[in-house]
Amino acid sequence: MLLLARVLCLLAVSANVLAYDSSFVQLIDDAIAVLFPPVRVSAYLCRLDQDETIRLSRLMSRSGLAHEIRAEVRTDRDLWDHRALHVLDLDCDHAVPLLRAANASGMFSAPTRWLLLRDGTIGGNVTDETVVERTFRDMAVYPDSEVTVASSGLEVEDGSIAWRITSVYRPGPFRELLTENRGTWTAGRGVRAVDLRPTSRRRRDLGRTTLKSCLVMTDPDTINHLTDYENKHIDPITKVNYPWVLHIANRMNATIEFRVTDSWGYRDRNGTWNGMTGMLQRREIDIGGTGTFFIPQRIGVVDYVQLYSRSRACFIFRQPLLSTVSNIFMLPFQRSVWTAIGVFLLLVLALLFVSAKWEYRRGMSAHSAEYWQQFHQSEQTFSDNFMVVLGAIAQQGYSYEPYRVPSRIVTLMLLIAALNLYASYTANIVALLQSTTDSIKTPADLLHSPLKLGAQDVVYSRHYFKNFQDPVRRALVDEKIEPKGHNGSWMTVEEGVRRVRNELFAFHAERGAFYKIVQETYLEEEKCGIMEIDVLNMLDPLLVMQTRSPYSEIVKNAALTVSETGLQTREDSRLYTKKPECHGRTSFVRIGLTECYFALVAVGYGALLSLVVLAAEFLWCRVEGSMFGRGLTTPRSEIDPVDHEIEIENGSA
Ligand SMILES: *[C@@H]1O[C@H](CO)[C@@H](O)[C@H](O)[C@H]1NC(C)=O
Ligand SMILES: *[C@@H]1O[C@H](CO)[C@@H](O)[C@H](O)[C@H]1NC(C)=O
Ligand SMILES: *[C@@H]1O[C@H](CO)[C@@H](O)[C@H](O)[C@H]1NC(C)=O
Ligand SMILES: *[C@@H]1O[C@H](CO)[C@@H](O)[C@H](O)[C@H]1NC(C)=O
Ligand SMILES: *[C@@H]1O[C@H](CO)[C@@H](O)[C@H](O)[C@H]1NC(C)=O
């Protein structure tokens, strides 16, 4: 019984012309060596019992092939496994159902490879490719697929049977099956390949297959100005990418159909994508016609093509004057110099006190008293000395006249020092008043600066601003752009550029658009000191296409060509205005009230202090008057003028 089964089985094997022998293994090995990169073989064969499977497996192992032999295709395997080569005997009964199953689970798209083997001579007839053609006529074997068919017995070269190797693919879903000749295989000489270029190069000509694409336009009028370089500040990214997509389609010999949408596409709350990204995800279009930001949420939803547009949005503003962001009245001297001046003045005050006292005592002596009394009626008090120092340092003058050498030395020293300090202070202040500050460099500086903020009203800015997570940028939006849901900070580029020119204002806009209007409207000196701060922190936008698109490799190749041949730079430089160059500042700067803010504050506080002193004096008079009676107030009148003097000095400090 067992013997009978064995015999039957042998008969069955011998009826199958495609023998799984060493020549079969040699064919696979040679094909892998020439046509495929290193791979792991999954062989789907039939009419094999266990012994023969083991024998075949041993043969394959001897040739160094990593392999598995099975009867059914496993559809749960990793579709991205780039080492998988599926070898199938087309003469098996289950071959066609197995191919259908593989088709249904998308196993014909890259990077999976197929090697189909068949006996080309059944019953002496050359059956040609009709079987293969019938099978693959409506399968998803698009240009990225690698379906290679090897048929035996077609040619006889010097007595040996040659195998013919072909590949089949369809340029698009509505196109006929095409057959490529890949070469021949003979047992002795191995594979003779016709064309060793990679698939994406060989199948570049799609024969006018229609691809679908989509353009994003925030302004409907853009459709009329896609190629005429009009209104470059409106939708520049659409206008830059449109010719690129046409170049790419041209290189693939494809025609392209455009749809129009108003959004790049973001995820809704229920998880669906809208706009262009949604169309790509739903496979309504093949390639996105307008560059898109590379963000983590979109990875896996769309595939990115390395063709960047130099379009970047950031906060743009003119460097503010130094005096508007800090107290320039403190800036001429460093902190240590201020301290030194303070110490010096205290020292002078002390010396003056001592020398004036000494002068008074010496002056009281009889022989010089008369001369001395021409100048001085009374002894110098400490507050008199203070007024002398204050008068000298504030360049105001005073009534004290030293007549002895020590006090003259002290006052001379004071006056010369005050003169020098005054000269350097005023010189510095003049320079500082005209200088701008570059202290605003980060989003945090922007947040704490006196600059008002605004943003160009485009869909992507609104989306990303709403989704900022980190505290600084969140605060930028919540406190400066949309305080309490206020909507006025979203505006057109034209208005933003005008406000940057006239106010302390930073505007978030697409750089090319902003600079185009700057070039047209700003005076030469107003183009100086323009600063940028990036808060979006994104790469430049790049083209997108469907995930696992059959045209992915071909499009990526074409995109490389577009950038290597300079077509990318051409559109970039024609549509994006560069940051204007600064050709020298003019010599004068307008100073307004904001610049003198701290001086006004000082005057205000001085006036307030003088009122307080006045009130205190008034109170003091009343209290003393009531305590000592009327008669005692007369001697104090000596001091009164001095107190008044303090009051006045404070008022003008
Ligand atoms: C062989 O070819 C003949 C004529 O072309 C055809 O009638 C016959 O069916 C073919 N045999 C096979 C097995 O295909
Ligand atoms: C192959 O798959 C594609 C898409 O998955 C489908 O449209 C087509 O009908 C399938 N072909 C066959 C023969 O099942
Ligand atoms: C593009 O495809 C058409 C149709 O297949 C063909 O006639 C034409 O020669 C192709 N053009 C190029 C440049 O290959
Ligand atoms: C998801 O939300 C959008 C609008 O926000 C709506 O158009 C769409 O139908 C929703 N999809 C589902 C599956 O609920
Ligand atoms: C702000 O303006 C946008 C578009 O103009 C509008 O959709 C939104 O409702 C407005 N928000 C408020 C708070 O007015």
Automatic annotation (TrEMBL):
GO terms for cellular component: plasma membrane. It holds the Pfam family IR75A_N. It is found in: Cell membrane. It comes from the Eukaryota. It comes from Melipona quadrifasciata. Residues 336-449 form the Ionotropic glutamate receptor C-terminal domain. This is Glutamate receptor U1. Belongs to the glutamate-gated ion channel (TC 1.A.10.1) family. SUPFAM superfamilies: Periplasmic binding protein-like II (SSF53850). Residues 87-214 form the Ionotropic receptor 75a N-terminal domain. It is a multi-pass membrane protein. Its main location: membrane. GO terms for biological process: detection of stimulus involved in sensory perception. One of its GO terms (molecular function) is ligand-gated monoatomic ion channel activity. The chain crosses the membrane at residues 336-354, 409-433, 597-620. Keywords: Cell membrane, Glycoprotein, Membrane, Receptor, Signal, Transmembrane, Transmembrane helix. Residues 1-19 form the signal peptide. The keyword Zinc does not apply.
